[in-house]
């Protein structure tokens, strides 16, 4: 098997697993934060605005870790420096 | 085995596992958020509108992580750049 | 083994595992949501309509992640582009 | 080993594991929902009709994920397109 | 090894594992439902009839997932289409 | 190794594992149900008869899943159709 | 290696694992039931006779699952039909 | 390697693992029962005799599962029928 | 490798793992029993003698499962019948 | 396979797994912190400013561990000293 | 590789793993007992002497299981009968 | 493969896994500490300064364990003594 | 590979894993004991001296299990009898 | 591969895994202790000094287990006696 093929195979598997494993943590964390936000709003309806603002900041922080994984996954599929190197080297 | 075959095999497995593993977290998180929303509505029926709005925003954030996985899975099946490269290269 | 055979074998395994693993999360999440809905209705019978509506929206969101898996599984069995490619190429 | 044999072997294993793994989640979820329904009826006997209706809708949703697995399992045993293809191709 | 032998070996293992793994979920779920039913009857003895009826419907739903596994297991042992095919083909 | 030997080896392992794994769930579930029954009787001694009856029905349902496994295990040891086929075929 | 040897090796391993794995569930379940029985007797000393009777019935049901495993384990060591078959066939 | 050696190796490993794995469940279960007994005696010192008697019956039932494992382990080391068979057959 | 060497290697590994795995359960169980005993004494200082006696009986029962493992481990190192057999047979 | 290829393959896999595994912990931790912050604000709305400040400091500390992983992942893809060494050495 | 080398390798690995795995249970159990002792002393300072005495007896019982592992580990390193046998036999 | 290549491959994998696995514990621990700090501030707003100081000391201690991992990871990538040894030895 | 090399390799791996795995239990146990000590001091500040003394005795007991692992790890690196034997034997 | 290379490879992997695995326990334990300290200070602000002192002693004990791992990890990278032996022996 030539180099580009191997790089391609490994990139596909890694891209998929990265986003699949990498979303478990953020999803569960967001679920917890949202659930607690709803409980807090039900307990203090007058603070709904403050609570929503804190929730969105928190969700953005948590989502950022999912986005790290998505970025790495997209880099591996569409902007993979190792793939570019070997495709260029082999003149495919 | 030629290159396109290997890319195809790996893409099938990765696409399936990505969406299978990637939906565990979001599903559980949505279940938690929905359950808490129902508890909150039962506790504060007057805030049902506010709570529903917060719930839908939260569900959208959580669903987004599942959609990242679905997007990667669909890219691997229907818009796989590595597959396109090798099919074109081999003139299949 | 020829290419179509390998694609077929891998598609069968992946299709089965995708739907098997992919239903664990949604099923548990729906169970949690339904259980909480019943508790909420018992606590606030007057809000049964609102609670049911929220429950159905939530179940639809959760079910969607199971359906992503079912869609990928069906695509792999009945509309597999890699299978079509190799069957056509080999003139089977 | 010829193609049909391999397809058959893999189909048997996948069919069994799909339904075995795929029933864990729904069974646990239904158990949770039923348990909560009983607690809710004991708490609000007057709402038994409403609670039962909600329970049956919820059980149907959860059962649907088990049925996805059963459908895939039956397709693999009795309506397997890959099996049909290779049996027809080999003229067995 | 000939085809029928392989089909037989795989069918035995799969049949056993399918029913072994597939009963874990339903058994635990039924245990939960029965335990909750007893607690509910102790709390509301006057509703014992309603609770028992709900319990039996729920147990039937849960048992159905165990029966799916048992059906697949029995099909693999006594009505296996792949086994029949290869035994007929080989004229054993 | 001849066919009957392989079938025998696999049947032994599968029979043992099937009953070993298959009793974990039912045992735990029965333990839960019995424990709750005792708690319920202590709470409502006057309903001991009703509670015992519900308990026995529930235990029977749970035990049924263990019996499925025991049946499959016994079939594999003493009434194995694949074993009979190959022993008859080979004229041992 | 001859057939009887292989059957013997596999029977030893399976017999050991079957009883080892198969006692985990029943032991934990009995521990739970006994613990709850003690709590119940402490709560309702006047019902000690009823509670003990229910406990013993429950323990018998749970023990039965451990005994299934012990039976299979003993059958594999002392009354193994496959062992008998091959020892008789080989005229050892 | 001759037959007796293999039987010996497998018997050693199986005997060790059987008792090692097989004591986890009973030990934990006894710990639970003893702990609850102490709590019950502290709550109802006047019933100490009844509670101790129930505890000892329960511990005996739980210990029986550990003894099953110890019996199998000792049989494999000191009264192994397969070992006796091959040592006798080979005239060692 | 000769027979005595293999028996020696396997005995070392099994002896170590047996005692290592076999002490997890008893240690945790004793920790639980001791912890509960302390809580019970703090709650009922007047019953300290009764509680200590029950605790020691319970600890002895639990320790017995650890001692089963220690006995098997020591037998494998210092009184291994298989080792004795092969050392005697080979006249080492 | 030449050295640069191997370095490339390993770098892709490691980069993906590092960020995928490395975000699980931080995401869950942030979810917990955000959830507790919302509960605290609902309990003490007057301290919302102090609580938000403490939350942001904490989130920054937690996010730092995710960023360690992201930094290592990016170094492996875009500034890998081993890759640079071998590409320079081989004059690719 | 000669016999003494193999015995040495296996003894090193087993000695390390035995003590590493074997301290998990006792450490956790002691932590639990100590924690409960502190809670009990805080609740009943007048019984500190009785509680300490019970604690030390309990810790000694738990520590004994860790010491079993340490003894086996030391025997394997410094008083290994198998090692002595082969070193003597080979006249190293 | 020459020595430097192997050292490079292993260093990449180890560096990634070290930081990935090594941040799980600290991240979860920091999340727990921050969450409790927020709860404590909400409970005792007057002690916010004392609590923040204790929190920061604690976070620093916890972060130190993550930094150990990061240090080892960076040493392996940028100051690896084994890599330097072999690159110098081979005169690459 | 010669004997000393193999002993060295295995000693490195075992030393590292022994201390890595062996500190998980003690660390968690100490964390639990310290946490409970702080809660107890907060509940009974007048007993701080008694509680601290009990805590330190308990921590010493728990730390002893970690020290067993550290001792084995150091013996394997710096006072390994097997290493000394083979280095002396080979006259390295 | 020569001896020094193998020692180097194994040392890298072991050093990384030792510190990665070895920080999980201490980090979680410190998180628990810090969290409880904050709760205790919020409950008894007057005892903040005593609580902080106890916390720091406890954290030092826990950190010591992480430092054991760090020490072993550093020894393996920078003061490895096996590495020194083979580098000296081979005259690299």
TrEMBL record, chains A, B, C, D, E, F, G, H, I, J, K, L, M, N:
Keyword Ion transport: yes
Site (Reversibly protonated during proton transport): 63
Alphabetically ordered keywords of this record: ATP synthesis, Cell membrane, CF(0), Hydrogen ion transport, Ion transport, Lipid-binding, Membrane, Transmembrane, Transmembrane helix, Transport
SUPFAM superfamilies according to UniProt: F1F0 ATP synthase subunit C
Membrane topology: Multi-pass membrane protein
Chief location: membrane
Keyword Transport annotated: yes
Subcellular location: Cell membrane; Membrane
Family: Belongs to the ATPase C chain family.
Protein name, UniProt field: ATP synthase subunit c
């Amino acid at each position: 098997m030539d180099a580009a093929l191997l790089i391609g195979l490994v990139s596909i598997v890694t891209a998929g697993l990265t986003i699949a494993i990498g979303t478990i943590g953020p999803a569960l964390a967001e679920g917890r934060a949202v659930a607690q936000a709803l409980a807090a709003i039900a307990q203090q309806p007058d603070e709904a605005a403050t609570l929503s603002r804190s929730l969105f900041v928190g969700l953005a922080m948590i989502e950022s870790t999912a986005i790290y994984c998505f970025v790495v996954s997209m880099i591996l599929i569409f902007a993979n420096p190792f793939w570019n190197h070997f495709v260029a080297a082999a003149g495919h």
